[in-house]
Every structure is written in C-alpha cells, then in structure tokens.
C-alpha cells in the first residue's frame, strides 16, 4: 500500500505544532542571550521547554490518532523559506510524530537527569541551552516536510552535537573530538546535499509530498529519470545517513564523541541524533524502493557496521566507549531493517524507539556510575558496584537484558523482527546479523560483569554512592520503557499499522514466530556469549591494567584501525596538500606576480645605468642618433 | 663650385664633433661646439647661395644670435663650476647621473 | 528627491566636516552620525523601492557631464544594486564603531599614532565611492568610481596598516590599476565601436553584435573584475592587503570593494556581451571551481588569522563567480545574495579577529589558545561568525550557498559537485582555527584577554542578528533580488532550466 497523500494544514494542536520547535529554541535563545543572569533558574527553564515540547507532541499525537487513517499526514506550511525552492513547512505523520515523541520524551527525561548530573558544573546553564538547541534542531529535522528544511535541522543537530561534545572545551581531546565529529558529518552532508540537488533537478521539487513512490516510479517509467539517477540519489542519501548515524565508513567520530558529558552521549549519541540516518532512509523510502541496488548497499552497510560495532564493543575498557560501540552496532541493525522495505521500516523504527529507551537508560546508568566513581570511566577500576548502587545497577541490568534480546524484553521483539526479515531477503546478511546478536550478548555481559559484579577494583579515594533521585527516577522510567515497549510495538504489528500512512503497508503482514530457527539460534548464541563473558569477567579475576591481548583484541581496541586509516588516507595527505598549496601560492602564483614586478624593477634598474653623467657619452649618443636619423632619411629618400 | 664650401663645412663640423667627444676641458669643448655651429652656418650660407634665396642667410643670423646667447650662459656656468670645483674638466662634473 | 545623489553627497560632505572639526573624539562621533544618516536614507530608499516595477533602474538621475563624449552622471538602482548599497550602508557604521580606537595607537599591536580625523574621513569618502559605484548607470561613471575607490583604501592600508603595510598597499594599488586600465581600454573601445555617442549602460545593451569584438571587450572587463573579485589566479594581492589593513578597512575591502568585481561580472559582462559570456563560461567556471577548492585548501594551511580569513573569501568569491556564470535563476539570485551575506559574515569574522588582535597584538594563530575560558562572549561571537563562514544552515550564508550550488547543478552538475566539496573544507578551516585559538588550556590571563565591552557588543550584535534573521527568513531580500536577476539572466538568452519531471509540476501549480 502506498503512503497516504499529505493534507495541507489542519487546525488544533497540529496547526501549532511549530511550537515543538519554537519552545526549545526560545529556551536556548533566552539562556544564551541573557547569560549569567539566568544561571540560577536556567536548568529549570530548559526542562520546562523540553517538557512543553513533549506536551505539544503528545497532544498532536492524540489528535492524529483521532483522524481517519487516510488523513494521518498533515502538512503545516509556515512561510516561504527560499522562494521558488522550498517552504518552511512541517509534516505531522505517524513517522515524524513517533520520532517527536521519542525525542521530547527521552529528551525531557535526560534534561531532568542532567539537573543532577551537571549540578556541580559551572557551565550548567550553557549546557541546558545547548540541549534545548539540540531538541529544537532534532525536531525540525524529523518534522520537516521537505529536504531543505530537513537539512537545516540535520546540520542544526550537527552543531548542537559539536557544541556538546566540546562542552568541556578546555580539554584538548574534547575540542578535537567535537571538530572531528562535525567534519566527518560534513562529509556525509556533502552526500546529502548532492542528493538534494539531484532530486531537485530531476523532480523540480524537494517536498516529500511530491516525491512519493508513485512519482519516482512514474519518472522512471516515463524516462524522465534514469534508474541510475535514482540509485545515485539512494547512495548519496545513504552517505548522508552514514555520516550522521556513524555507519561505515564514516563511523570514526562516534567513539571520540564520548568526550562529551554523559547525558549528551545518552541523548544525542545514542537515543536520537545518531538515528537520524535511519529516519532519512525510511523517509526517503520512495527512492530506495525504486533502487534495489541502493537498498542492497544499505543492508550491507548495516550488517558491516553492526559487526564492526560489536567487535569494537568487545575490547573497550572505557564504559562509555563500549556503549558507543554498541550504539554503532544497534544502529547497524536499524540500517539493515531500513534497507528491507516497508516490513523492515517498521522493525527498524521499533528497534530505534526501543533502543532509544534502553540505550539512554544504560548511558545514564553509566553516567550515574561515573558520578559515583569520581568520573572514572575505566571498567577495570569498577567491580562489585551492585551492592552500593542498587537502583542504578538494577535499571542498567534491565537495559542490558533488553539489548541482548532476553525473551519478552524490548530488544527481543524488535531485533528478532529485523533478523527474521533479513533472513527472508538474504540468508547471508541474516546469519551475519545473528552472529552480531551473539557478540552483543558477550560484550554487554562483559560490561555488566566488570562493572557491577566481581571484586572491587576501585581507586583508593573512590566512595561510590547511589545517585540522587533526580537522576534515578529518569532511570526507572526509561527501564520501564525498556521492558515493555518492544512487545507493545511489535505484537499485533501495532507500529507497522500505525506507520502505514507514512511509509506504506507491506502486502503480507509478518506474524510473530518465537520458535523459528533463526530466533532460537540467536537465543542460543546470545546465551553462549553471556556464559563465555561470565567465565572471562565474572568468575575470573579482572586485571586492573589491560593485558596486551591478541591481535584481534588490539584490532578492536584501535577501532578496527578506522582512525589510522583516516589518518593515513586523508589527514596526512591533506596536511601535506595544504602545506604544498600554501607553498605553491606564496612561491608559485604570488611568486609569479612578484617576480613580474621584480623583473620590471630590475630591468629599469639596469637601464638607468646608461645615464653615466659624462657629457661626452651623451654627446656620442646624440651624434649616433643623429647619424641614424640622417641615414634613415637618406635611405628613405633614395628609395 | 659650392661643393668646396660644403666639404669645408663638413670638415669643420667633423673636427668640432670630434673635439666635443674627445676633449675634456670645458672651454675647448665649448669652442668645438662653436665650431660645429659655424660649420652649419657655412653650410646654410652656401645653400642660400646655391638656391638663390635668402632663407639660409637669415637662419645663419639666427644661429649667430643663439650662439652668442649660449656663449654668455655657457661661459658663466663654466666659470661657476671652475670656481666651486677648481676644475674645468667636463668629466668632473658628472654628479647628475643615474 | 535625488535620493542617490544625496546618498553619495552626504558622506562626502561628512568627510569634509570630519576633517575640519577640532577634536578626534568629535570627529569619530560625527563620522558615526553621518554614516547612520546614510543608513537611514538607505532604509528609506529600500522602503520606497518597488521590486515589481517595470523600470530597469529606479530613482534614476541622468545629467550630462562631458557632452563632447556623451559622458553622463547617471545613477539608478535595480534590486541587485540596491542590496549591495544597503550592504555598504549597514557595514560602514559598524566598521566606524569597530575602528573606534584603531587609529589611536592604543592597541597591543597598533602602528604609530596617525591622524584619527583622516582615517574616519577616508572611511566616509570610501562609503560615497562604494554607493556611487553600485549606483552608476553610466559605464564611464562606473569606471571613475571603480578606480577612485582605490584611493581612500590605498591610504587606509598604507598609513594605518600592519608592519608590511606599504608593500601591501602598493601591491593592492598596482594590481587593481592594472585591471582597471584594461577595463578603461574596453570602455573606450565599447564607446567607439557602439557608435551611439553615449556611455549610458541601458543604451549600450545589445549593441555589440560581432562575436570577436564581444570577446575582446568581455576580456577587458572580465580581467578587471577578476582581479577585483578576486578570482583565482589573480588573488594574491588580497591576503596581503587584508592581512595588513586595519580590521575595519579589511571588512570594507573584502566585504564591499571586492563585490564590485562580481557585481560587474553580473551587470556588465553578462548583459553587454552575452555571447562572449556564454563562450567564456566553461573557462570561468573552471577558474571559479579551482578557486573554491584551492582557496579552501590554502586557508587550511595558513598560520595567520587574517590571511586565513582572506583565503576563505577567495573560496567564497569562487562560489559567487560560479553562481553568476551558471546563468540560472537560482544560481544568479544565490550569487547576488551571497555577495550580501558574505559581506556580513566575513565582516563579522574580520572584526572579531580584529578584537583579538587588538588585545593580544598578534595575528598568529599559534599565539592564541583557550580564549573561550577567559572571554566566552568573544569566543561565542567568533564561533557564530565562523559558522556563518562555513555556511551552517540557519545562518544567512547557507541560503545563498545552497542556491548557488543547486542552481549550478541544474546546468553543470560536475562543477557543482566539486564545488560542494568546499563545504567539507570550510568546516575544516573554520573549526580548526576555532580549536587552535579558542579551546584548550588558556594561554592568557583574563586581564590580557578581557571579554567584549559594550562597544564591541554593539558592533557584533547587529551583524549576528542580520546573519541569523536572513538565515531563516531570506525572502524579503530575495524578493528584491529575483526580478533584477531574472532580467539579467534573460538578457543572455539562454534556455531556462526545467526539471526532468516538468509536466507534473506545471499541473500542480
């Protein structure tokens, strides 16, 4: 079934849905413009604005649910943005409202958590300003009704991410990580921009409304757009998605991004921003469905990243980097799902929402642990924390069980859906995804065992304690989501049917098969991973200093040599090129200009030597000249 | 018949020119210039005779007047230079160069 | 009311007044007041301007100047000229406020004290020239303003600049004169060959038909504009001039003066010599694209802040030239908007860099570090100015860069793709500079690097407000620009772009 038509403007809350963007933007503006005067209540304003956006999102969601299915795509045109090119317009449909709910819901919880987490930081007000800015930009990204406005939000979240990764700018590593994230993202944006250009020159529009599956198929069949063009659009959009979602080959920034404060890692680099790539692929489904090659590449990228992320996650001792590897890997699953057409979209989005909850949950849990351990991130210096911080540990464990796909928890339903759908399309990809799930079981268990169980390997001055309730309450709320959301979204194909007006409905609705071969194999592999992790990190002693490890361990610790590769391929040659270009400019082009000037100056300097000051030589030259003139006259006269 | 006068004029001019080029004493150079001017005068007069009109003769008068004026100013300059620099050599007065 | 003549006369009279008053302080205040009067007048002009008008030039005034050769004092504006005049009128008061102490000899790296009155008088004279050059509708008058602009700028660089000021000033003057003289030859040849007995621009459109003649005349005009803009490879005077000029003068140099080059390409090259323009388009596009990438790469390798900003401008001028010669509606309008936005964005960057240099006395990037910690406001404005330099969406430069690229892609996809890589490089040079100067442990104690004072906030505030406002709502400016660009592009007689899927769009409207 095709997605529904977009109906322009409606009344009610949807008519003022721009408030979702405007409220947090206003919050950010107030906090940044009024500076220190807002220090005392700035964080409260930030939370209020985020909650306000959440309220609007919920109200819009309720209004949308009240509409008949055919009308569940409501456009809100605000004003003409670039005349003739793009309007500033919002699109409220099941897909965008799902994201809006996730962003504002999880976002608000993380705002609240940050009150406690950042309470001792002198820059807390600025932090909340940036968080609000992020929420506004992210909502603009998902609510945009065309690619240009989407791109504004797309780069807006990139800016917020840059500001928040580099929040502690006085740390050179943080500043470098922020810059790296922005630049790598820009490489992706390069792809997205050219995709937009191609779409515009082919279809004469960038509005989602006019880029439906029917329009794309029509253009191909009428010969207005070649299959190659559509495939190119798909691949370019994928490049953009890879940048934002840290998929291979643009994955390298995400691990460095963990330099940012932990709530940032939870909100931006786990729950929301990094999933924007998945959103983009799903939103551009019309192009991917018309370009099987592009779709295949999406799935391959997804599978490659899910394996790479999982392998990286296995070797990290830094708890946040371990979680970051896991995020990469889980987004790989989503990407895989997003490359599988309408059935996959629903599972991808379901996994995305569930992941938003359990990964935010675990990141915030990790933050709580760091908060208790004087900002120590090395898991080798944790151990046995379960007994001192029970709420954090329990909620973290729930997130852990959800991510490894423990039966009946969120991840079990959503990940299994992606794997089953992948199996139907391509056995190899499917089985690789199963292997990835097994590795997930290992590295997540490793993390839990090293942190909460085993011997206490704390630093001498560590006095861990449970975090205040402003931090634990969000953890509890998130863990409730981690338990139930998967079942709620997947069973009865609830999300799939809800999303149908936005992304279309597959011809055959998939059933839920808990005892299929891939499902059981996945469970078995996960169990093997958990047990192996128990023997390595639960039962056995964990050394406080990391052992050297095998080749494979080093490979994983070095992020699969992604950074080394970037450095060798781009950074060094780039620096060399820049130095050469400067040299060429100074010596070559400017040298030519200055050389010309110097040449003229030098020539005249030499010529003036003729003026010796001796009257005799002047007289001689006069005589000589006269002789030449006379000779010439005679010659001409005789002709 | 006038050829001889012209040859004489050319000879005088050449002597004057060589004098200007090779002599260093300003007075001698000056006199050589006079010689060249008078060689020209001779040529003018000769041509006037040859053509049978007075143009050349009139120009000769002009030249004489100009030469007289030139002598006045020129000698004055030479005297001044001699007074300040104790030399009448043209090569010593080479400050106006480059 | 002769609006444009008033606009040109007010700053000139102001300059005379400024040079006559007794105290330096009064001179500065008078200069600021005069520039604000010009700003208000320009605002009124913009208000009275009718974008939809059928007239080619509004507020037109034509008087005979040298009747023997048909030279007129002819002024008038269309949308393109109007926005550039507005740019000058907005920038000058900001620059005057920013340069308040530049001639006092009080800064950490200040050159020896010079006449304060002269500096501000020169600024006002320059403003008059800038307004005149954009308003001129007589080709000869345009040429006169084009060359006369050099004089105040020459003295501002040569007398008030950094250590290498005289080298930079002479290089700037000679380079520009070289181009200008080529243009003079072409202007005279145009007059003679057209044989219309007039230099008035509207009467010279479409007169030159012979292709060879068009090419030669085009070359004469284009080289002058390419030097002025500056287009690769005629650019090397700019980094020297911009790095040595005092920050305020650098803003006007790069922000407005150089726009005369790209403005001239759009107004004169395209309209007077349409066939030659089409003939030379591939060459110009190659130069522009090379300039974009080359300028960005060289900027990455710079160690001096002001030189770095100058090279980013070379990259941006590549975008503008690309937009002009892509000859599509979107690209042309984008290029015009880019001229305006670049003025504000680079202006902001130069001014913040100027504030930094005033405090620390060095323009070397390596001498800074961790400024964010001691002067967060300064760092914040620097970041916003930088982000507008890398065309972040939501800031004005994005709209124009996007329009240029999408408009170019309509006709020259390969050029557009290569140019788009400039987007990535821009992120590298801006953010790397920000990282090296603003982040990390601070190198300066707070008293060496005080945060922005109120005067500086009033300098940066309006600039940033304009940049953000035009980033989200560019429509008012584009509505002024679009009709004028449409007229210009249509005079080239080139097939307008239509998307492949055209019929659906036509049905939808």
From TrEMBL, chain B:
Its EC number is 7.1.1.-. It is a multi-pass membrane protein. InterPro entries: NADH_UbQ_OxRdtase_chain4L/K, NUOK/Mnh_C1-like. Coiled coil: none annotated. It catalyses: a quinone + NADH + 5 H(+)(in) = a quinol + NAD(+) + 4 H(+)(out). It is found in: Cell membrane; Membrane. The chain crosses the membrane at residues 6-22, 27-47, 59-82. Keywords: Cell membrane, Membrane, NAD, Oxidoreductase, Quinone, Translocase, Transmembrane, Transmembrane helix, Transport. Pfam families: Oxidored_q2. It comes from the Bacteria. One of its GO terms (molecular function) is NADH dehydrogenase (quinone) (non-electrogenic) activity. NDH-1 shuttles electrons from NADH, via FMN and iron-sulfur (Fe-S) centers, to quinones in the respiratory chain. The immediate electron acceptor for the enzyme in this species is believed to be a menaquinone. Couples the redox reaction to proton translocation (for every two electrons transferred, four hydrogen ions are translocated across the cytoplasmic membrane), and thus conserves the redox energy in a proton gradient. Belongs to the complex I subunit 4L family. NDH-1 is composed of 14 different subunits. Subunits NuoA, H, J, K, L, M, N constitute the membrane sector of the complex. This is NADH-quinone oxidoreductase subunit K. It comes from Streptosporangium amethystogenes subsp. fukuiense. The gene is nuoK.
């Amino acid at each position: 079934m095709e997605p529904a038509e977009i109906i322009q403007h409606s009344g009610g809350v949807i008519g003022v849905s721009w408030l979702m963007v405007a409220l947090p933007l206003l919050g950010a503006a107030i906090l940044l413009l009024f500076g220190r005067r807002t220090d005392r209540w700035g964080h409260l304003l930030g939370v209020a604005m985020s909650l306000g956006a959440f309220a609007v999102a919920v109200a819009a969601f309720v209004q949308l649910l009240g509409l008949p299915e055919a009308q569940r795509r409501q456009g809100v045109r605000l004003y003409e943005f670039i005349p003739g090119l793009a309007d500033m317009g919002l699109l409220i449909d099941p897909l965008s409202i799902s994201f809006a709910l996730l962003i504002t819901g999880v976002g608000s919880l993380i705002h609240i958590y940050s009150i406690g987490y950042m309470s001792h930081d002198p820059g807390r007000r600025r932090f909340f300003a940036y968080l609000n800015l992020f929420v506004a930009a992210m909502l603009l990204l998902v609510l945009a009704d065309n690619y240009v406005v989407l791109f504004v939000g797309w780069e807006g979240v990139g800016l917020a991410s840059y500001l928040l990764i580099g929040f502690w700018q006085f740390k050179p590593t943080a500043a470098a990580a922020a810059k790296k994230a922005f630049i790598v993202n820009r490489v992706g944006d390069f792809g997205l921009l050219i995709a937009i250009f191609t779409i515009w020159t082919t279809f004469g529009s960038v509005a989602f409304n006019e880029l439906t599956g029917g329009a794309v198929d029509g253009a191909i069949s009428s010969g207005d757009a070649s299959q190659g063009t559509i495939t190119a659009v798909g691949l370019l959009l994928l490049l953009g998605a890879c940048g934002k979602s840290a998929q291979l080959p643009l994955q390298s920034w995400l691990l460095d991004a963990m330099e940012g404060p932990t709530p940032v890692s939870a909100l931006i680099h786990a729950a929301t921003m990094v999933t924007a790539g998945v959103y983009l692929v799903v939103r551009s489904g019309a192009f991917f469905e018309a370009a099987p090659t592009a779709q295949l590449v999406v799935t391959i990228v997804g599978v490659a990243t899910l394996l790479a992320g999982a392998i990286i996650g296995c070797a990290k001792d830094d708890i946040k980097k371990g979680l970051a590897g896991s995020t990469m890997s889980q987004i790989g699953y989503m990407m895989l799902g997003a490359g599988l057409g309408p059935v996959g979209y629903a599972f991808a989005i379901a996994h995305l929402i569930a992941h938003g909850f359990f990964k935010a949950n675990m990141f915030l849990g990790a933050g709580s642990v760091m908060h208790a351990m004087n900002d120590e991130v090395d898991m080798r210096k944790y151990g046995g924390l379960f007994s001192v911080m029970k709420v954090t540990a329990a909620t973290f464990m729930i997130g852990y069980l959800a991510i490894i796909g423990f039966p009946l928890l969120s991840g079990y339903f959503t990940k299994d859906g992606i794997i089953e759908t992948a199996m139907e399309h391509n056995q190899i990809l499917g089985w690789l995804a199963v292997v990835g799930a097994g590795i997930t079981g290992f590295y997540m268990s490793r993390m839990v065992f090293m942190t909460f169980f085993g011997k206490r390997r704390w630093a001498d001055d560590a006095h861990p304690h449970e975090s205040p309730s402003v931090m634990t309450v969000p953890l509890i709320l998130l863990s409730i989501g981690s338990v139930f959301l998967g079942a709620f979204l997947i069973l009865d194909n609830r999300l799939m049917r809800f999303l149908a007006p936005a992304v279309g409905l597959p011809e055959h609705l998939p059933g839920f098969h808990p005892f299929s071969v891939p499902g059981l194999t996945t469970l078995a592999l996960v169990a093997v991973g958990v047990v192996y992790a128990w023997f390595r990190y639960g039962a056995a002693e964990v050394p406080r200093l990391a052992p050297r490890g095998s080749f494979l361990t080093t490979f994983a610790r070095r992020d699969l040599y992604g950074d080394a590769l970037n450095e060798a391929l781009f950074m060094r040659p780039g620096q060399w090129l820049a130095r050469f270009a400067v040299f060429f400019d100074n010596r070559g082009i400017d040298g030519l200009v200055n050389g010309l000037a110097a040449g003229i100056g030098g020539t005249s300097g030499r010529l003036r030597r003729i003026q010796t000051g001796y009257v005799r030589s002047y007289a001689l030259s006069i005589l000589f000249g006269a002789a030449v003139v006379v000779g010439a006259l005679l010659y001409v006269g005789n002709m | 018949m006038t050829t001889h006068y012209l040859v004489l004029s050319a000879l005088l001019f050449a002597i004057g020119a060589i004098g200007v080029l090779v002599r260093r004493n300003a007075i001698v150079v000056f006199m050589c210039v006079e010689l060249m001017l008078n060689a020209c005068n001779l040529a003018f007069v000769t041509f006037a005779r040859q053509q049978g009109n007075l143009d050349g003769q009139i120009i000769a008068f002009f030249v004489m007047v100009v030469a007289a004026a030139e002598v006045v100013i020129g000698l004055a300059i030479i005297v001044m230079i001699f007074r300040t620099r104790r030399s009448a050599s043209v090569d010593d007065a080479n400050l106006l160069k480059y | 009311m002769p609006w444009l003549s008033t606009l040109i006369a007010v700053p000139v009279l102001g300059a005379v007044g400024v040079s006559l008053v007794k105290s330096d302080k009064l001179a500065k205040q008078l200069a600021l007041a005069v520039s604000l009067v010009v700003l208000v007048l320009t605002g009124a002009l913009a208000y009275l301007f009718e974008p939809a008008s059928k007239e080619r030039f509004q507020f037109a005034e034509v008087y005979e100047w040298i009747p023997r050769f048909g030279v007129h004092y002819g002024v008038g504006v269309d949308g393109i000229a109007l926005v550039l005049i507005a740019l000058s009128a907005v920038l000058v008061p900001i620059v005057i406020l920013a340069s308040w102490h530049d001639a006092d000899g009080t800064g950490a790296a200040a050159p020896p004290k010079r006449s304060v009155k002269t500096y501000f008088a020169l600024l006002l004279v320059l403003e008059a020239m800038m307004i005149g050059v954009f308003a001129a509708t007589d080709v000869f008058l345009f040429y006169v303003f084009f060359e006369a602009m050099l004089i105040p700028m020459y003295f501002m660089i040569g007398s008030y600049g950094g250590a290498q000021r005289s080298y930079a000033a002479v290089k700037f003057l000679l380079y520009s004169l070289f181009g200008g003289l080529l243009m003079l030859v072409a202007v005279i040849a145009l007059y003679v060959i057209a044989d219309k007995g007039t230099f008035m621009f509207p009467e010279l459109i479409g007169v030159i038909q012979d292709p060879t003649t068009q090419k030669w005349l085009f070359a004469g005009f284009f080289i002058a504009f390419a030097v002025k803009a500056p287009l690769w490879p005629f650019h090397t005077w700019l980094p020297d001039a911009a790095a040595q000029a005092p920050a305020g003068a650098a803003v006007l140099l790069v922000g407005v003066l150089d726009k005369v080059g790209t403005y001239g390409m759009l107004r004169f090259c395209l309209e007077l010599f349409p066939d030659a323009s089409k003939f030379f388009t591939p060459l110009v596009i190659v130069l522009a694209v090379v300039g974009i990438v080359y300028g960005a790469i060289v900027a990455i390798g710079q160690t001096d802040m002001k030189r770095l900003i100058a090279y980013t401008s070379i990259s941006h001028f590549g975008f503008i030239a690309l937009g002009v010669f892509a000859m599509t509606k979107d690209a042309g309008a984008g290029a015009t908007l880019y001229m305006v936005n670049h003025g504000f964005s680079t202006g902001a960057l130069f001014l913040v860099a100027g504030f930094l240099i005033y405090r620390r006395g060095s323009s070397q990037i390596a001498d800074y570090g961790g400024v964010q910690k001691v002067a967060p406001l300064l760092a914040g404005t620097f970041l916003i100015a930088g982000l507008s330099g890398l065309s972040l969406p939501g800031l004005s430069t994005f709209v124009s860069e996007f329009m240029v690229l999408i408009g170019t892609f309509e006709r020259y996809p390969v050029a557009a793709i290569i140019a788009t890589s400039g987007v990535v490089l821009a992120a590298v040079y801006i953010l790397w500079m920000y990282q090296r100067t603003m982040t990390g442990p601070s190198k300066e104690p707070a008293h060496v690097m005080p945060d922005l004072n109120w005067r500086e906030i009033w300098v940066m505030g309006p600039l940033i407000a304009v940049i953000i406002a035009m980033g989200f709502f560019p429509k008012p400016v584009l509505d002024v620009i679009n009709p004028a660009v449409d007229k210009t592009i249509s005079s080239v007689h080139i097939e307008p772009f239509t998307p492949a899927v055209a019929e659906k769009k036509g049905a939808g409207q």
